[in-house]
TrEMBL record:
Main localization category: membrane
Any matching Pfam family: SusD-like_3
Taxonomic source organism: Olivibacter ginsenosidimutans
Name used for this protein in its record: RagB/SusD family nutrient uptake outer membrane protein
UniProt keyword list: Cell outer membrane, Membrane, Signal
Gene3D superfamilies tied to this protein: 1.25.40.390
Family in the record: Belongs to the SusD family.
Length: 573
């Protein structure tokens, strides 16, 4: 059991909520308690500050894994982009109908406020580490705890910068209401991230004994991402973009070529001896995700533990089969039914892959790609309805997609029937013997995988005009995937379609697609949304340009002593 990351806040809550023992009922009823806990006396040991940092790991775990299937987190993960949409049965939860999307939308407020909640937790840990009553066993112990907190603060601001642009930078503990926060520029927000990460780069170890704890490669990866994002904005603003892109390449290369991390190219892990599978499939099997499991591709992973889930932590799960899985039992009930491994588990199709994600990126020359093999991206489903003419046989996609004479019915059915990635389902569900219903996976999951570092470097190279270098980096992934078609400089297009398509193949269900699209600048995001959204509402209602999410109106209105300007395109909506 991963004891350090069971995500129990018992210790911290005990500090914040406990009171001294009462001598009598009369004492208990006194309105003036004998002890108050403040930011200056809430912590008494270094271990308690480390637990405050663990609480941030917990919040990020829940934000990424989304154990409760919250719709605003599904938007954060990509609902409404070129890659994901909602099924016919959930069109009320669409995030690409711009007749309904405006700065009052709760998605924007929830995302914005959640990142600031994380920042507040990080600020508390950083401040408390220097309290005079805290004793650290070594300087290195303190540096690592503080380094993790500063990483989380930088990570939050990087996400805010990519999604919302320049935001107020808050590094102090706020103990009373404040209504005059000032926005920085987007470049300044990225610069804060860069400064924070550079300051702690050497305070984090190259590797750890425990899975899930931050390492130096995570800092360097985020520096590559931050410099890339800053360079893109500097290019828009007329600044020194080339220097930023070169720094992005430099930090990415530290990770890619530093000797600690490497792409997995041979079968490995718990199921390597099975005849089925391939190395890409191995990456997403239980007990295979962490660096400590022998997976040199994993830079940082969130931690899931089935024993903890059963004992005390009901959120220690990946509800991916449920949230992302298809509903053949509705969309093709005459041929496929049930909720077993043969149909991808107990899916309810909260978030579906668009036709672009499931089919378009693999058309033509992409038939030979490990990432599109049936074990990785399952396309062959055997009929399991006894009355079906395809009982015991593969059900053709023409039947799954176009079995009705009515076009609207077919579109609805297609939204419920789609290939199943090995990232969201398995043929061996843990916990079935205990009553689990094939909704959840109980493996760890990636925050950062080396593949993304490589794609960041490829993009930075392209933005410097080095299309040949960008192609070489993309080919690192295609060679690993045994693709029959490699790219050349001539394939590297100026609209970054090659980069974005490769990210879709490699990082489906991993990256936060909105972050990627919105940092690209220009109209890349809205152009792709209008082209690839599953439902027609996007093209019909997306009649304005934007490359940032709006600042939530609630935030603007609350900040009454300082004007927070709305992002372009969202004014008066």
């Amino acid at each position: 059991m991963k004891k350090w990351l069971i995500y129990s806040l018992t210790g911290i809550m005990g500090i914040l909520l406990s009171t001294t023992s009462c001598q009598s009922d009369k004492d208990f009823l006194k309105e003036t308690p004998p002890t108050f806990y403040t930011v200056d006396n809430a912590f008494s040991t270094a271990a308690q500050i480390d637990q405050a940092v663990v609480a941030i790991y917990s919040q990020l775990r829940d934000l990424w894994a989304n154990p409760d299937g919250e719709e605003w987190i599904l938007a954060l993960k990509g609902n409404g982009t070129d890659m994901y949409d909602v099924a016919s049965i959930r069109r009320g939860s669409s995030f690409n109908n711009y007749g309904n999307i405006n700065p009052d939308n709760t998605v924007f407020y929830n995302v914005y406020s959640t990142w600031y909640q994380l920042i507040a937790k990080a600020n508390l840990a950083i401040y408390s580490a220097d309290l005079p009553n805290i004793t650290w066993s070594t300087d290195q112990e303190k540096a690592y705890v503080v380094g993790q907190a500063r990483f989380f603060r930088a990570f939050a601001y990087l996400n805010l910068g990519e999604l919302f642009g320049g935001v107020p930078i808050v590094t102090d503990i706020t103990t009373e209401p404040k209504y005059d926060f000032k926005r920085t520029s987007r470049v300044e927000t990225y610069q804060f991230v860069i400064d924070e990460l550079k300051a702690i780069e050497n305070d984090l170890p190259e590797t750890t004994a425990e899975g899930g704890r931050l390492v130096r490669g995570a800092v360097q990866h985020m520096l590559a991402r931050a410099y890339l994002a800053q360079g893109i904005q500097l290019a828009v603003d007329g600044g020194d973009a080339q220097s930023a892109f070169n720094q992005s390449i430099s930090y990415a290369s530290k990770v890619i070529d530093g000797g600690t991390f490497s792409l997995m190219t041979n079968r490995f892990g718990a199921r390597a001896q099975e005849s089925q599978g391939n190395v890409y499939w191995d990456l997403f099997q239980e007990n295979n995700v962490n660096y400590q499991d022998g997976n040199k591709e994993c830079i940082w992973a969130l931690q899931i533990d089935y024993a903890a889930y059963k004992a005390e932590d009901g959120k220690s799960k990946l509800p991916y089969s449920r949230v992302y899985g298809p509903v053949f039992r509705d969309g093709s009930s005459g041929h496929l039914t049930g909720t077993g491994p043969d149909v991808g588990g107990r899916g309810i199709a909260q978030l579906i892959p668009t036709m672009y994600t499931r089919d378009v990126i693999y058309e033509d020359k992409w038939s030979n790609d490990m990432r599109n093999s049936d074990i990785v991206f399952k396309r062959q489903f055997i009929g399991n309805v006894s009355s079906s003419p395809y009982y015991g046989k593969p059900v053709p996609w023409e039947v799954l997609y176009n079995s009705s004479s009515d076009a609207a019915t077919n579109q609805a059915n297609r939204s419920l029937c789609y290939p199943v990635s090995c990232k969201i389902a398995t043929d061996k569900y843990t916990g079935v013997e205990d009553g689990e219903n094939m909704s959840n996976l109980f493996r760890d999951d990636y925050f950062i995988r080396l593949s993304e570092t490589i794609l960041l470097r490829a993009e930075a190279k392209q933005r410097l005009g080095n299309k040949s270098g960008a192609a070489d980096d993309i080919n690192l992934l295609r060679n690993r995937a045994h693709c029959t078609y490699l790219v050349t400089a001539a394939d590297v297009d100026d609209q970054f379609n090659l980069i974005l398509d490769e990210r879709a193949r490699e990082l489906v269900y991993e990256e936060n697609r909105w972050n990627t699209l919105l940092r690209m600048s220009g109209t890349i995001a809205i152009d792709r949304i209008k082209e690839y959204a599953y439902w027609p509402e996007a093209k019909a209602t997306l009649t304005f340009n934007y490359n940032l999410w709006p600042i939530p109106n609630t935030i603007i209105d609350t900040n009454k002593d300082q004007i927070l300007e709305q992002n372009p395109g969202w004014e008066n909506r």
